[in-house]
Amino acid sequence: MKRKYLSLVVLFLIQLVNAQNTVLESISELENITQATVSINKNLKIHFIGIGGSGMSGLARIALSHAISVSGSDAKDSTVLSALAALGAEVNPAHLASQVDGADFVIYSTAISQNNVELVRARELSLPILTRAQALATLMSNSRSIAVAGTHGKTTTSSMLTVALQACGLDPSFAIGGTLTSSGSNAHRGTGEIFVAEADESDGSFIEYNPFAAIVTNVEHDHVDFFPTPESVAQAFRDFVATIKPEGFLTYCADDAGSAALASTTKNLQLLSYGVSEGADLHIDHIELLTMGSTARAVWKGKTVGHIELQVPGHHNLLNAAGVLATGLNLGFGAAELLTGLGTFRGTGRRFELVGTVHGVRVIDDYGHHPTEIQVTLAAARRFAADGRLIVIFQPHRYSRTQAFAAAFAAALDAADRAILLEVYAASEKPIEGVTAKLITRQMKNGEYIPNFVEVTDSVIGSAQPGDVIMTLGAGDVSSLAPIIVDGLNRRFA
Q1: CATH for 143-344?
Q2: Quick one: 241 exposed, middle or buried, by C-beta within 10 A (0-12, 13-18, 19+)?
Q3: Residues catalogued as catalytic
Q4: What does pTM read for this prediction?
Q5: For 353-492, which CATH superfamily applies?
Q6: Residues of the chain with pLDDT > 70: what percent?
Q7: How far is it, in rounded angstroms, from Cα 381 to Cα 379?
Q8: What local confidence, expressed as pLDDT, does residue 43 receive?
Q9: Which letter, b or e, does each residue of 243-269 get, where b requires 16 or more Cβ atoms within 10 Å of its Cβ?
Q10: For domain 2-130, is the CATH number 3.20.20.70?
Q11: pLDDT tens track for 186-231
């Protein structure tokens, strides 16, 4: 019975993909395409455990857009939960076993412990249970899906691809890890055949996707709680690429050693390269890095097709755009339309996001939480600051990452004029003895350890000068400080 019910759920999710703009009012609509003898609820209810995560909230949005009843829980309250509640979801900033009662099936984030009370209750009730990756893979299964993977840059690149395809007159579905500035959403069920999905490698689940095509921005050691060695990360990406459909293709960054190595081991699949490297299929040159933007000439297989002109800063974003352009051209779309779309891209939430400007002091929030990400982000921030000071408030994310990369974090953060470190954001990890943010500051020239949020905000608000750039940086709750700093600056300079 359980297997039959699960297959029905899968069919239901596939039906969502095929439904286009049709709102499914009942799972009973699938009775015509299945021989399952299970009794069907007229009002399907999906419960999401860990609904506040970027990937989970995207799936919840898609379900809500089809008039499906959605409930969900998370460990704490957030603006994401508030937004989902406004769309009609039942959300709770706490995990309670009783919240699973009445659900038809459950989707959970792999960040959730297997001992979570709601997950345990779902098993007791013999409910069908899907991981986020399994649910997303099912939603993509009947689409021409493009999965964007990489240790860094996947959210921005998948967002750029979505906007570029929209400029070509398409209405792609998308599920990405950040909020598109242009739409204010991280997920959408489109009317077209293309589905753009951010493929998260952190738990290895991206092997579930089986995409038509993929972009790999880079391959580097991260998520050391799951991947103990660089080779284990490289193997995960090889496994992912092996799931690309044979008739599809892989777009990879030729400038990145990890991506290039991945391509060298990939057989029987069309390969497209991009970057400043000579011989790249999509070659960029004549690069100009601006204060809040960047430009480059784009050469596709030896022919100039135009110029990339971005409203987001940094060499790394030019590479992201080059990957998108190469992918779009290979899909058969016009260079002019794709470049127009890239030119209108205004970023995603928490990716070099300008939160406010007060009396010449600019406050930026960014998600960067790996030394490589911090290095390129601070390079862009330094150009943005010009003659002003660059003040960074960084929150390390996970004890395991802090322990593994402490020296690299120290080197990257020393690019700031002042770098303040909060205590480690644990996420789902237990503390590791001897591992605190001090592990980083001890190796820095300008590092300060101030774990108290109030002391940090008071310090930067009180010392800020016109021309300064204040950046909140990290994957934890450090982002909550950015609006507080803006508000404090408004009061100070009123």
Answers
A1: 3.40.1190.10
A2: buried
A3: 154-155, 198
A4: 0.86
A5: Mur ligase, C-terminal domain (3.90.190.20)
A6: 91
A7: 5
A8: 67
A9: bbeeebbbbbbbbbebbbebbeebeeb
A10: no
A11: 888 888 899 999 998 988 889 999 999 999 999 999 999 889 999 9
